[in-house]
Amino acid sequence: MKINSKFNIVLVEPEIPQNTGNIVRLCACTGCRLFLAGKLGFSIDSRHLKRAGLDYWESVEIKRVQSLDELRQKYPENTFYYLTTKSKNIYTERTFKDGDFFVFGPETRGLDENLLKQNPDNAITIPMNDGQRSLNLSNSVAIVVYEAIRQNG
Q1: Distance (Å, whole) CA 96 – CA 19
Q2: Contact status, residue 125 vs residue 94, Cβ threshold 8 Å
Q3: What is the 3-state secondary structure (H, E, C) of the chain?
Q4: Higher confidence at residue 101 or residue 61?
Q5: Residue of higher predicted confidence among 115 and 40
Q6: Whether the predicted pLDDT of 9 surpasses 60
Q7: Domain that includes residue 26, residue range
Q8: Which of 60, 130, 144, 147 is the most buried (most CB within 10 A)?
Q9: How far apart are CA 144 and CA 141, in angstroms?
Q10: Distance in angstroms (rounded) separating the CA atoms of residues 65 and 47
Q11: How far apart are CA 46 and CA 85, in angstroms?
């Protein structure tokens, strides 16, 4: 089965190479583009990064950008969704469309609070039990991407 939807995943300052490698693999399987924004917490040459991405690297469109702002300026017509534990907006209550961007923050600190305050309607969350901090980054990306694909057939 071929997936015809085209979504964009943005990792802002990712810190753990294995997560990024897993997301590369997800992008290969779903046709998503991957943007790496800001300073990376690892080397692109990391063996952990390459191992987690296996041999999927050649089939993924990966772009490096200096900042999330640069990306938003380049794609002003697209919708950006900001994944966070600090929102009441549940991701399944949004209608996603081709070209949407799903933005995820660094594993240890998440997206900047000011960014979330400036974009409250597009700050979305994955529900969890009370008292839990967050899901693994690559799991969170997969959950949201597959919901977007489900919505778009």
Answers
A1: 24
A2: no
A3: CCCCCCCEEEEECCCCHHHHHHHHHHHHHHCCEEEEECCCCCCCCCHHHHHHHCCCHHHCCEEEECCHHHHHHHCCCCCEEEECCCCCCEHHHCCCCCCCEEEECCCCCCCCHHHHHHCHHHEEECCCCCCCCCCCHHHHHHHHHHHHHHHCC
A4: 101
A5: 115
A6: yes
A7: 8-151
A8: 144
A9: 5
A10: 22
A11: 29
Burial class (CB in 10 A: 0-12, 13-18, 19+), 62: middle
Residue 27 maps to a domain: yes
CA dist., res. 142 & res. 95, Å (int): 17
Residue 3 lies in a domain: no
Between helix 17-30 and helix 137-151 the angle, nearest 10°, is 20
User: Would you say residue 131 lies in a domain?
Assistant: yes
Average pLDDT score, the chain: 89
Which residues are within 8 A (CB) of 115 and not within 5 positions of it... i.e. 6 or more apart?
68, 82
Rounded to 5°, the CA angle 44-13-121 comes to: 140
Looking at residue 29, which CATH number applies to its domain? 3.40.1280.10
Domain count, the chain: 1
- The answer to whether residue 1 sits within a structural domain is no
